[in-house]
């Protein structure tokens, strides 16, 4: 249902994003990324690496490394997907916010909520979307 391809967003490093390989209907969960959580106080070690930009808040006291496609979704303030934390399954679940067409890149809002306008920690190269 999804795959990694070259993104039109040029971040200067990887240019990767997640794309729909078939139409995805609004509300459909299309990916459950397993997580490796760790206590927030350990994050100071991760902050010294490139991985810091890819971590997700995971509850009040933890941060998480997402596996699968979880770390490869690009940001947009007008996302076509959202995510929910599933603590029982230790996953982050990704859902279609609206209908997503085949070949569309899938975006989430790094602010956590679909309608968040909070500033993110890097230059938003997708701001004109």
UniProtKB/TrEMBL annotation:
Gene3D superfamilies: SET domain. It holds the Pfam family SET. Residues 1-111 form the SET domain. GO terms for molecular function: histone H3K37 methyltransferase activity. InterPro entries: SET7_MeTrfase (IPR009207), SET_dom (IPR001214), SET_dom_sf (IPR046341). Signal peptide: none annotated. This is SET domain-containing protein.
